[in-house]
Amino acid sequence: MSERTLELRDVHGPSALGGGRRRAFDLLYLIAATEFKQTYFGTVLGYLWSLARPLMLFGVLLAVFTQVFRIGSLVPNYPVLLLFNIVLFGFFQEATTTAVTSIVNQESVVRKTQFPRIVIPLAVVLTALFNLGLNLIVVFAFVLGWGIDPEWTWLLFPLVLAALIVITTAVSMIVSSLYPRFRDTAIIWTVAATVLFYATPVLYPLEVVPDTMKDLLMLNPLTPLFELAREWVIDPSAPGPVEAAGGWGLLLVPIAIYIGVCVLAAWVFNREAPLIAEQL
Amino acid sequence: MVVIEARGLDKTFRIASHRVDSLKERVIRPFTRADYRELHALRDVSFDVHQGEFFGIVGRNGSGKSSLLKVMASIYRADAGSIRMAGRVAPFIELGVGFNPELTARDNVLLNGVMMGLSRREAAKRLDAVLDFAELRDFVELKLKNYSSGMMVRLAFAVMVQADADIMLIDEVLAVGDAAFAQKCMDVFHEKREAGKTIVLVTHDMATVQALCHRAMLIHDGELRYIGDPEETAMRYYRLNFGGADGGPTDDERRAVPDVHARLVDAWFEDEAGERADNVEQGTPIRLNVVVEAREELSSPIFAVHVLNADGATVFGFDTRMDDGGADSIEAGGRVRISGTIENPLVPGRYFANCFVYREGAARGALQVMHMPGFVVFGTAPAPGLVSVRADVRVVAEREASR
Prior knowledge:
The complex is a heterodimer.
Chain A: E1 8-10, H1 21-40, H2 48-68, H3 78-105, H4 107-112, H5 119-146, H6 157-178, H7 185-199, H8 211-217, H9 222-234, H10 240-245, H11 248-272, H12 276-279
Helix pairs in contact in A: 1-5, 2-3, 3-5, 3-6, 3-7, 5-6, 6-9, 6-11
Chain B: E1 2-16, H1 23-28, E2 36-50, E3 54-58, H2 65-72, E4 80-86, E5 89-92, H3 105-115, H4 120-125, H5 127-134, H6 149-162, E6 167-171, H7 179-194, E7 198-202, H8 206-212, E8 215-220, E9 223-228, H9 230-241, H10 249-256, E10 262-270, E11 276-277, E12 279-281, E13 286-294, E14 298-299, E15 301-309, E16 314-321, E17 329-330, E18 335-342, E19 349-359, E20 368-378
Parallel strand pairs in B: 3-7, 3-8, 5-6, 6-7, 12-20
Antiparallel strand pairs in B: 1-2, 1-4, 8-9, 10-11, 10-13, 13-18, 14-17, 15-16, 15-19, 19-20
Helix pairs in contact in B: 3-6, 5-6, 8-9
């Protein structure tokens, strides 16, 4: 007989959180680490592949935008900026598109065990973050090699990164919890992510965009983040989000949308989490 | 001491008779909500389980017993009522724990250890014990998708056992695996019972309930029908299954099951001369012939024949596998013939036979149940009980005692 006295505790059923913090962290780490291992296990070049994708995209886009359209020549340090942006956006895209089917892919786990459901989309983001970390090392080597001197503002970059991680997590939570119920989330999100790629200043800086389009782009909460990253890391003379947006007032719009997305994510996931096992 | 306290549990599933899982469907048919059929899986179920108790939950398929287990395991949320549990819970649901087929056994064991409440370090420490128990040490780096279903169940069971939880929730483990594994499960059950662990076991196997459970509970249509003595529970379960003289709703339901996987082409009994017969003399062997047609490819099928008496109790049954020069699957449309001689210990009376098709190592239940024609055993030596056995017993006067 066990010596300790056991106390009756309420069982509330599955939920987004709940079930012990330590266990949630352990699970998060384990799932993300095995996922990371799994992605690169069995491929010949391993991690190099995850770098090859953004590099190839970078090569193509660089050729197009410096040789064909020549926007690139208007912008200082365009190749560095392009690579930097592609890697940052790549993180957002990889995490969110993988997240869509993540819960359904873990079906057997979800249907047979009790654990905080939020661990699944978080693990996807964490896996993508491992990738981003490795890619950023290469990017910063490239930045230095290009002849850009480190600025003190580089120290602020983690703030932008944190904001990017939060919105990526929020979007991942939304799409992953909606997918079991609406299977077309996958298709919609693939298209939406492509639209976002062009609607975020990845290929171009915001100042080259005509004013009418600019207002539209400022609805995108990723826009100020990318502008901020550019100002802080690549080009201290770049206009930065406030100036590019045309004042603090206009900047409030993407901030409000950013917060809105996060609140929506918390609400949707919390509502769907207890029911996910039944819908699979 | 009460370790599981359930009060007024209620659970309803909404099953879309017309599945609406895309936005397009929603847009085209915005008012199809009425298409939902409600399935009341649990109705006001209350019970207590005490520490150290071996508690059985029985019921027919679809009675709600598995839903109840999932509510206890926090996989489903009850719509109403409350449930309180004490201690760490390890679930073993649908013949498994939360395995990811894309991961190796090692990763899965660690992951599930943590899910069952161990720390990462503890889970790593028990890896060896788990592998030893499952006898799968050589396959630790193999991805689970390459495991056979039997290996998978063994590993899952080992994970659950080694998690050393206070409460184990087990759904139908004995239905699969070979005899050695079944024996191992039994050993574990006995061991855990001795150790004062609480085990909740969902099963169809009344023999297990009667042999192991301290108490048992019968669920039917989501309602608690009986709770208490395992023998009584088993008896009520049988009565539910075979209730009514000539087949109540139970049999009708069964007959309604379409022949999806296999179809009975013909089945008959033969007398000693090899002629078709629907009666057989007491004590003479029964010659059985069954021809089954596969509706879809059946790989490693197991055919079980159960003989039931007029009261609906299974008198005996046996399993057979294909034994045809190494071939162990039947293609769609292919036929097999199951024939042979069965010892006949039956007392005179009317009997029914059912043929079940199982998939080897498969999850719960039979793929197909096929009803065979009944037969009569005639004879002049009625005996009490279900079977008459050969007994070599003599009665003599006891000489010393006689004065």
